[in-house]
Amino acid sequence: MVAILRSNAPLRRLLGAWLQSCVGTGAGYVALLLLATRDLHTSWAVAAVLVCDLLPSIALGFWFGGFADRYSKRRLIVVASLMQALAFGGLALAHSAAPILLLALLAGVGNAMQLPALRLALPALAGEDTQVAAAIYDTCRWVGVTVGPAVSAALFVVSGVALPLALNGLSFLLAAGVIATIAIDPPAQIDSKADRTGVGAPPGLKAVFASPLVVALFACSSGTLFAGSLLNVSEPFLATHVLHGSGSDYALLVAAYGVGMVVAAVLVARGGAVPADMLIHRYIGALVLTAVGMFGSALVGSIALAALTFAATGVANALLLVSQTQLILLTVPSAVQGRLFGAKNAVNSMALLLGLAGAGALVVAVGVRVTLATGGAICGVCALAAAATLLGREPQTPPDNDVAAHARTGFVDMIRSFP
Q1: What CATH number is attached to the domain comprising 240?
Q2: Per the structure, how many domains does the chain have?
Q3: Does residue 141 share a domain with residue 60?
Q4: Deepest of 14, 97, 367, 375, by most Cβ within 10 A of its Cβ?
Q5: Residues 369 and 242 sit within 8 Å (Cβ to Cβ)
Q6: Closest Cα to residue 333, out of 167, 208, 152, 230?
């Protein structure tokens, strides 16, 4: 892992810019929710900010994925980073509902535009080391999620919420400046007939979704994200009500989960590239471990045991996400990978939104332990479905020209192609 970063300066600069941006995002996320709580004075404001973050991925993820397939990834990442820098810089000065929500929406648009382009920049820069680069990329994201809130907490002591938001904006500005200097391979040319169909009309996406692998990845990803929402909402109640702990105990569970994700991603990156059939076994094993971790969390009787089950769930989640990304990069034609990542972001955001909406009601109706067990059951069903669909099949990567030969489909047909 270190050797790859030392020998590949463009990749090192990209991932370095991404890491500091992730730490800023982790700090800015906490500050943004506190800003909404402080100035808007209602829990609905926090929900509205979260919706503003997710809505652009749901509504625009398909098109932004198409942009990543067809246009300069470097320009897309730079423009998206500048949008987020503007949004968080403005949020540091905002004090009323309209600007807070509009700027949060702008940040969500930038995030939805940036992610597919970043994912496709990895194979463009890393080549045969793409699997390791993808694992390092995810490690940076989870380091940011784990370290960023701690940075924000330290800044709150001296500044309140404005400084973390401003520094997050500065981190995006720095990322834009660094990435603007990196030569990322231009996207493949698309013929004029495809251009007339519009960015939202991917070539051969129906054919891609005919693959059992892609269908299983989308379905299981959505199911586990829904289950993860149940875990996120239940977690503070498990720590403080069921196990009679404090706010610090809740923070311990959050940290245990984050550390589990970081450790697993680092181990995957150190292991180097693996074939697709091994990735399938790892993916199914991660689904099983996620189910075990959530069932374990539903049964624990102490904070110490809960920290262990949350760490195990974090390990499983990291293995799940890294394996999923690597399988897409290995088995999906490069001509439609951007649109597939955009579609995945859209579907995952919808699952997350539904999970957040239903989790609170479920905790009230059946209690924390049953809610966690329900999440474990969902992950168990996903594991069985993935095993039944994928085990014994050899994933194949169709050539790009075969994919492009299929009839282009419009956005409505693309929606219908989803399982």
Answers
A1: 1.20.1250.20
A2: 2
A3: yes
A4: 375
A5: yes
A6: 208
